[in-house]
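Thanks for the sequence, V.! I ran Probable cytochrome P450 6a17 right away. Repeating your input here for the record:
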Amino acid sequence: MFLLLILLLPLVIFVYQKWHYSYWKRRGVYQVEPNFLYGNLKEFANGNLCISDELKNLYDEFKSKGLLYGGYYAFTKPTFMPIDVNIVKHILQKDFGHFVNRGIYFNKERCPLSAHLFTLEGEKWKTLRAKLTPTFTTEEAACSIGSQF
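Predicted structure:
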């Protein structure tokens, strides 16, 4: 019995991994084929590329295929990458309430400037956004730019 369990365990892990890394395929979204455990960030994990270069490569691949969006895996986490500017605009303007937590790590004590609108989550994000939103209204932008344009 124990021998059977040892033989079946790798098969179960393999099947689960295949199922997990087909998240985007099951939803009809194009995905770059991921690596086990690394997802699509293998070069970053190995120290060969910085995260921005790795994400830029994924973006370029989606864009070169003429896609409006794509899916990739940040290690084991399925992550959506919009390419089309209209989709980005819709997410940032209409659907922002669903995307308040972005999962970006920051350390406020070690780097106080890292606690900004793109890294904060929950109530802290909501409070800061409420303070900043009036600054970016059409009227405020017109006042700060003036009538030159």
